[in-house]
Amino acid sequence: MDAEVSKQDRFYNFLAWLHVNRTRVLIVAAGAVLIASVVGFLTWNKHHQEDVASEALSEIKGSTRAGTPAPAGTAEAYLKVANSYPNTAAGARALLLAASTFFDEQKYEEAKQQFEKFARAYPDSPWRSQAELGIAVCLDSPKKTQAAADKYDEIIKRYANEPAADLARLELARWQEQLGKPDLALRYYQELVKANPYTSLGSEAGVQKQQILEKHPELDETNKIVSPKPNVLLTPQASATNAAKTNASTVKATNPPAVKIPAPANK
């Protein structure tokens, strides 16, 4: 009975507190509703922006076949989508496509700027390594440079487990060939063949490797002959001497010296 009365007292006390603090309670409740509404709107807006950006990107008519130039103004159209929807996956992809299109048009400086912009704007993107590789290729075109080689080496070390690292190895091997360092190029090609045995990249590296070995057969490990350890040949005189020594040792071992018998004493 006392417990039931205690519950009623607490309930009436809560009603009294609620009456006194009703204004504060209404403000807190309204704030919670507002926050929930804002979060809901932002979530909806983000999905909506993604949909709109994807639709805008799909409307751009780029090149449909490899080796075929894109229509004029394609790179600029990609940039427009990238700038209009910077915080969307479609916008990020549009920026990469713009850079790639500039590169195909041999506008290497413009392409490099867009690849660098992507690397800065999307540091956590899974496409970051592709952008870094794009920077290296732009540095590599149209003339091979040490800056490009350094960038390839950086990609190999930084993205060791990503496809971009293997592509960087391939380009670095070609660069070493042009420098007249077939041994270094061969090492990269061998690594690619070993790591990509059943892919087009591995096949290409295998072809390049074979071409180097045809030009420089001395680099082929299978052509290196290991000389056997020479046998020591004894001259007849040395053989006879060794035989005499052996026989003498045998005689000494099998025929012990005779025991000396002392002479009889004089009487």
Average pLDDT confidence is: 77
Structural class: mainly alpha
Order of helices and strands: HHHHHHHHHHH
Distance N to C terminus: 148 Å
Quote the beta fraction: under 5%
Commentary on this structure:
By secondary structure, the chain is mainly alpha-helical. The protein has 11 helices and no strands. The longest helix is centred in the N-terminal third of the chain and has 37 residues. α5 packs antiparallel against α6, α6 runs antiparallel to α7 and α9 packs antiparallel against α10.
Helix and strand topology:
Layout: H1 2-20, H2 22-58, H3 74-84, H4 89-104, H5 108-121, H6 128-139, H7 146-158, H8 163-178, H9 182-195, H10 200-215, H11 236-254
Helix pairs in contact: 2-4, 3-4, 4-5, 5-6, 6-7, 6-8, 7-8, 8-9, 9-10
Explain briefly what this protein structure is.
The protein is an all-alpha fold.
Question: What labels would you give this structure?
Answer:
267 residues, mainly alpha, Serine Threonine Protein Phosphatase 5, Tetratricopeptide repeat, 70% helix
